[in-house]
């Protein structure tokens, strides 16, 4: 049986990783992936990705890196994404993975106007979401955890925007029948979100936001979390509930 690939583009900060684990662990839990069927490739450490035909699908993690840095490992991964799209491989990107997919497919990524978006945010579906299998049964608005400085400023030609926040118009993109990505973090739980806010509290104050208020507004995000698992179920990546 072909493995499910997690493309690791970075690591959680040391203080968060020590207490809560790291990206692959969060992705495995969120998407209900079988550990026996999992392959993790750390592209930021220059590990080599397998040919798309050797895996059943791929999930792409977040990162502290910036897509606009055009690091060699990131650009190589962008090329792999284009090959995977040609092969119609199921792909799901999160945060950096979302931005990298959009960049690879012709979109534009840069710093989000107005600065960092962090905390539990309301996400609103677009009218197009009513016609997409991944979103058509979702409520018009739901909560999701966010932490990012860069964003997709222009979606690739042909991509469909399925959800947005008040500040970021491209929180959920559909690129084709087997490929989608989200700027928000479905894999975060509330404790992880609080840990990121705590870590960034001084930076947030310098930027003019109130970390205590943002911290108090953190809440569970079951609908956002379910989007990744639903994608995995639809494409044969996730284990079914018994």
Structural class: alpha/beta
Q: How much strand content do the residues show?
A: 15-25%
Query: What is the number of E strands?
Result: 11
Separation of the first and last Cα atoms: 21 Å
Poorly predicted spans: none
How many helices in DSSP terms?
8
Explain this structure.
- It is a single chain.
- With 242 residues, this protein is α/β, with parallel strands linked by helices.
- Helix content is 31%, strand content 24%.
- The chain contains 8 helices and 11 strands.
- β10 (172-176) and β11 (179-182) form a beta hairpin.
- α3 (72-86) crosses α4 (96-104).
- The mean pLDDT is 97.
Task: Offer a concise description of the structure.
This protein is 31% helix and 24% strand. The protein has helices spanning 14-20, 23-31, 72-86, 96-104, 190-199, 201-207, 211-216, 222-234; strands at 4-8, 38-42, 57-60, 91-94, 108-111, 117-125, 141-148, 150-154, 160-164, 172-176, 179-182. Helix 3 (72-86) crosses helix 4.
What tags apply to this protein structure?
two-stranded antiparallel ribbon, alpha/beta, nine-stranded mixed β-sheet, 242 residues
Annotate the secondary structure layout.
Elements: E1 4-8, H1 14-20, H2 23-31, E2 38-42, E3 57-60, H3 72-86, E4 91-94, H4 96-104, E5 108-111, E6 117-125, E7 141-148, E8 150-154, E9 160-164, E10 172-176, E11 179-182, H5 190-199, H6 201-207, H7 211-216, H8 222-234
Parallel strand pairs: 1-2, 1-3, 3-4, 4-11
Antiparallel strand pairs: 5-8, 6-7, 6-9, 9-10, 10-11
């Amino acid at each position: 049986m072909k493995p499910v690939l997690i493309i690791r583009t970075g690591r959680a900060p040391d203080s968060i990783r020590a207490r809560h684990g790291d990206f692959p662990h969060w992705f495995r839990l969120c998407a209900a992936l079988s550990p026996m069927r999992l392959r993790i490739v750390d592209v930021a450490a220059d590990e080599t990705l397998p040919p798309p035909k050797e895996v059943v699908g791929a999930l792409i993690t977040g990162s502290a890196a910036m897509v606009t840095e055009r690091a060699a490992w990131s650009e190589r991964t962008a090329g792999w994404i284009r090959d995977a799209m040609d092969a119609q491989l199921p792909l799901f990107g999160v945060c950096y993975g979302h931005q990298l997919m959009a960049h690879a497919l012709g979109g534009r990524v840069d710093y989000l106007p107005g600065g960092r978006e962090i905390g539990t945010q309301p996400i609103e579906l677009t009218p197009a979401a009513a016609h997409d299998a991944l979103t058509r049964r979702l409520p018009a608005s739901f909560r999701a955890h966010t932490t990012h400085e860069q964003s997709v400023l222009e979606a690739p030609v042909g991509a469909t925007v399925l959800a947005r926040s008040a500040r970021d118009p491209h929180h959920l993109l559909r690129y084709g029948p087997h490929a989608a990505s989200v700027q928000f973090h479905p894999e975060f739980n509330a404790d992880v979100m609080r840990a990121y806010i705590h870590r960034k509290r001084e930076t947030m104050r310098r930027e003019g936001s109130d970390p205590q208020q943002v911290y108090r507004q953190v809440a569970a995000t079951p609908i956002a979390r379910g989007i990744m698992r639903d994608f995995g179920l639809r494409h044969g990546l996730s284990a079914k509930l018994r």
